[in-house]
Amino acid sequence: MEQQQDLDFSVPFDGYDGFTALPRSTPRALQDRTIQLKFDKVHDGYLVHAWGPPDTPLCYDGNAPYSGRLRVDHEQISQSLEDIHDAWLKATVLHRHEGAYPFEGFPEQTLGRRSACELLQEACETLARAGQRLYGEIFESGDEDLDRLAAALSHALRSGPQIITVTSSDLFVPWGLLYLHPDIQHGLHAGGTAVWDGFLGYTHLIEHNLGRVDGYSPFIEHGGERPKAGLYLDTRLEREGAPDCPLSPVRNVFDTHTAAQEWTTKAETAQRLTSSDCSDHIMLFSAHATGNRTDHRGQKSARIILTDDNPIIAGDINDWVRHRSQLLPSPLCFMMACEGGRAGQYDQQGLARPLFKLGIGCLVGPQIEVPPSVASSLTTRFFEEFFKGERAACILRDITKDFISQHASPLGLAFTLIRGIDTCLIHSPQAEKP
Predict the structure, then answer these.
(1) Residue 44 bridge partners (DSSP)
(2) Are 316 and 271 in contact (CB under 8 A)?
(3) pLDDT digits over 119-143, tens only?
């Protein structure tokens, strides 16, 4: 019998070898940000600010805070996002290899170690170049002040793992997909090999913040024995008797750890999310979804479709906002739905912006189409840790690394965090309401 061997998807160069991993902080304590970025819309682009704590590359040094002008508009950003989404789709989900689509599952299981390693590195090279282009468009397309900011930011990112919050109500970018090679001397333009450490979402904890919200708290406190969860499902994903039904493992973990209720139609969802007694701690959407689309009939708004096949679009959620007397109590919202992590530059480009107007506190979801089996595995893993009290950002980064090292799949990186660095579940008897 052939002796089993541990898989090794290591790369020739580890830019952060020797650096200590970021710690998982204690509950109710905010994690100190080492990098803060802020983008404000101005008439000819964006005003970019960057700062950090003392004794870091972005700290105030008695000279002047780092700020610069990014000279791109909404349309250019939207096109750049389409380009990186397209690059990710072609390099992963739509990539054909020997007559099959290996990233529909886990390549290590279907191809074996050697072929999976080769396929993974090929994807890394393609995705790194796409991420590097977007990094350049964001931080290297402005005035001299932005050049100085970019130099300090690059130095900070290359100095080791960072905890990063990007704040903007005007600009949304899937920050985790951006790429900066860890070794300035041997980068991609110098013929260097792409490495996973260069992706911001692989090495750093990074979240997007759409702006300040009254009454928001990252600490999701529940007073009962179990937290409350609302599951918004397309039950057509179920395959009768099939062992690989994507809903089954997700349901199991929620049945074990929460008091969950299921909603399967648009009408039920509207009634639930406009109800004054909707106080769920967790929301899960597991359904078919898309970001905005353009076809022969014109623009189609982002949407998610439950069992009744009746699309829920951004306009519907905005209407529900108007029928609520107060915001939802900052629940975590997980989108096990294709393109469910998109926010875009406008409400219609993704569902994230209207969901935050409704009162969610954190959103986790993919930027691209993710096969049901992969999405189910990641969702299950995520909540197994989240129900232990771990923080959303730490969980997602760990799963991303595990998917690459153990399964030869980069699709964990496709999941974006809007808020989440501090988001965690806390059992607190004081939170029980009469």
Answers:
(1) none
(2) no
(3) 999 999 999 999 999 999 999 999 9
User: How far, rounded to the nearest angstrom, does the alpha carbon of residue 42 sit from its chain's CA centroid?
Assistant: 27
> If you search the block for the tokens 């610069």, which residue do you land on?
68
Res 117 pLDDT > 70? yes
Which sign, positive or negative, has the C-alpha torsion 364, 370, 372, 374? negative
pLDDT at residue 63 in the model = 87
CA angle, corner 327, sides to 289 and 201, nearest 5?
50
DSSP label of 57: T
pLDDT, average across residues 9-23: 49
218, 423 in Cβ contact below 8 A?
Answer: yes
Could you tell me the two tokens for 262?
């299921």
Q: 38: buried, middle or exposed (CB in 10 Å: 19+, 13-18, 0-12)?
A: middle
First to last CA, the chain: 62
pLDDT digits (tens, 9 = 90+) for 227-260: 999 999 999 988 655 567 899 999 999 999 999 9
- Cα distance between residue 178 and residue 138, in whole Å: 10
pLDDT at 238: 84
Name the helix (H) or strand (E) containing 150.
helix 144-158
Contact 224, 432 (CB under 8 A): yes
Among residues 194, 254, 149, the alpha carbon closest in space to that of 410 is found at: 194
H or E stretch at 336: strand 332-336
Inform me whether the pLDDT recorded for 348 exceeds 80.
Answer: no
Strands 282-286 and 35-42, sheet pairing: unpaired
At a CB cut-off of 8 Å and minimum separation 6, what does 340 contact?
285, 289, 304, 351, 365, 366
The tokens describing 216, both together, are: 């928001």
- What is residue 22's DSSP assignment? P
14 pLDDT tier (thresholds 50, 70, 90) = low
Give the span between the Cα atoms of 133 and 136, in whole angstroms.
Answer: 5
